[in-house]
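Suppose you are handed a protein chain with no further information: no name, no annotation, nothing but its sequence. What can you learn? This example shows the usual starting point.
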Amino acid sequence: MLSRETPLELAHNRWSAGGAVIKETLHGCRNNDGALARYLHADLGYRTTAIDCSSAALKIAQAEQDANDGPVFQQLDIETDDSSVLPDAGYALVTCRLVFAFIKDKPAFVDRIRCLLPPGGTFWVVTPLAERLPEERKSIGITVQQVELLTAPWSSVESEALDSMCCYALRP
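A reasonable first move is to predict its three-dimensional structure. Written in structure tokens, the prediction is:
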């Protein structure tokens, strides 16, 4: 399995509203060289778009992929770029792994993600919690106040603690 949080992600997100299998997913590829996007595409049959603002991260992810089949890898800064350039207008699942602490305008980011989710869609966030990290690493985690910014706008919030991290399944 890719990581400890992957089974939780799949358990939380196996079905979208109405019991239909999720077919469109949007992922970042930094931190995992596109492995989750390829897993969802190749092993589970999802149509997957992996985005990153880093061309280097995209090159690494694309180098690991069969050129004939696989997820779409696209350079995009989800904080500032126009999301209308994405291949799908909406995504049943959007993941954000180890990135939320570094987002500059967190409320605007959450609003942008909400716009990409149809009813029944899920925003899956995996992030370290600052309170569970050693002092020298607290900057890579989110604070209690940032957890509130992340979770407050959603009608459904499920979370699962994993040592110093937490996984959130957020639904409109």
